[in-house]
Amino acid sequence: MVEATSTYAGRDEIEALSGARLTAWQHERLREVTDHAYKHVPFYRELWEAAGIGEDAPSSLEDFERFPIIAKDDLIRAGNRWTNPRQGPVAFSTRGTSGDPLLVWLSAEEEETYIPPTMRGFRWAGFRPGMTALLMSPVWHRLAACEAHAIARLGGRCAFFWGSMGPEYLDSFLHSLSSVRPEFVTTTAPFLLSLIRRSTNTTIAPDEILRGVRSVVVVGLPLTPRMREFLRDRLQVDDVFERGGTQEGAALDECQWHTAPHVHEDVCYLEVVDDSGVPVAPGVRGRLIVTKLSAAGSIFVRYDTGDFAAFAPGECPCECGFRRLKIYGRPESSVVVADRRITAYDVRICIEEDADLVGRNVLLIREAGSPAGLLTVAIEGGAQHEAELKARLRQRLGVDTVRIVWLGDLRVNWGFRQVVDSREIRSAGS
Amino acid sequence: MTTENAYLLFDVPGGRLSFGDGELDVWAEHLTWCYRMMGVADGATIAVQDFGSSPISFLGSSLLMPGLPPGVAERINGRFICLDASQERVTLSPALLSQLAVDVLVIRDDVIDLMVAELRKKGFAELARRTTKTIVVFGDQRTAPNPDRAEPWRRLMHVESALLLAPECAQCGCFHLHHGFYEVDGRRIRNLRLNVPPYDLRSGELLAPVGCAAGYGDWRIQLPIRPKGA
After folding, report:
1. Fewer CB within 10 Å: C terminus or N terminus of chain A?
2. Which residues on chain A are in Cβ contact (under 8 Å) with B88?
3. What is the ipTM of this complex?
4. Is residue B217 part of a domain?
């Protein structure tokens, strides 16, 4: 692990705020955003007027709960009525996992507000001046675009490999790792798992791949505790950190205690609500609602990202006043079995209780016409302790029947998907 | 080859581009010149389907790279849409093009067939043709022309490892090597502004300067990819 004393070197002003002071600060930012949106973004003005919300709201964070929750389709339908005069010149696409993708705009003003939390997250993850970071593509995500700026401002060097995050670019990633020799890497968990699996078929030992790398920051998949240990131990890096965020403005980073990613409360106000829109208690899963605390770029006020998340109860030993939130998945990364929603994260937690199965990519299979109560899971690699695993999945997840598809060495483009249609597995195997 | 004190390293096919303080600026200006040479107007919305370590992507805006005060978007007072060139992301592009009036789509040659297939699948072909001009970016690994594919509006020759950017001229149909950026020796093209290996032209002819009013001092590459002046 990164030394405890070094993590908070250079703690910024907002990190020191907590309780009432942080709440008051966020309320002020919310007022700025809603005031701007009311005056300049027709979609929001019409929406709020129809809901009986006046220009002077919200009067408090509680009052903010009166604002209607919106979803992606509302914004796509709104078209130009959602345009912010301060939205900026650069747009990124959401992943379109739940229908059409959405274009999200970034301005210089907004980016300036997101670079400091990126620097903060990287400091938490052990980045230090003089280090070299191998980063994800800046065109891939709005938050990734902030990463190179953050590294440069922290006094580091940025390196980029050729290609994207699919397994077909592993060689390119390996080439950059071996020639740049970075101390800090940002990537995705499925990409790292594919890298480890691939190294088993080559002369490169997994602990050689990331030789010299101190910290790895991963996005795209909620890390289970065992997955983190597996990645750290197999890759022989000091530590592995989970970074979270959405194109719509949520931004989260783990501190060294790994108790759950901290919300960067200076750039986003996050809520977790139940299906009727009522906030749920910490520890209880609900729908993630995002409000971006900047009036620049695309404006998101009470936007339902589609993610299932829960605030972590209690305090983090790091003493940072920021709340902690774990994002578990989305409808597209989960299946419903006999009215019970099961995320890929839940399944991985069960699978990884078996030490021999830790570190394998896992997919939930959606199958047309499958019997009610059947959970189908695809697991990378050969069969291991199948009977015990089935029993454990049935018991922990409360499903009647479990079917396991062992994928062997089948080449699957893992990307960020955690659920696939059974036809894709069949066609990949044919 | 690396530039001394480089703090931005981009691995590209066959090499690496390294930039130190202030070195991105000249390349953003050069890429802007390329767009203007091809006829892209100020204020345009440009969508680029390429990888993040391609100069065509990372020079797109100052928001994408530190040390790039104005990128292409800021220089032409336009907008820049980031579209990653991975297969997964290319399939999303038709839906995005339907949400926004894109003036120019700049797309890598090796993913254009996938894009066209997606456009057809989703019934967006007419929409894309109506609103968007296409610039196809190709390198020295150019794929064979697909007879089913419509002619693009323009082409941009791009050899990543040599940072060779040669736009197709709207006037002469040749690919201009901007005066002051490249030096020609036989079939060898040397980059004068960045420490990268030279590029040996594999096909086509190099035409000496003073042949096109769009760039009197420019060497030009004439490639047998479509009739001159088409």
Report:
1. C
2. 164, 166, 413, 415
3. 0.93
4. no
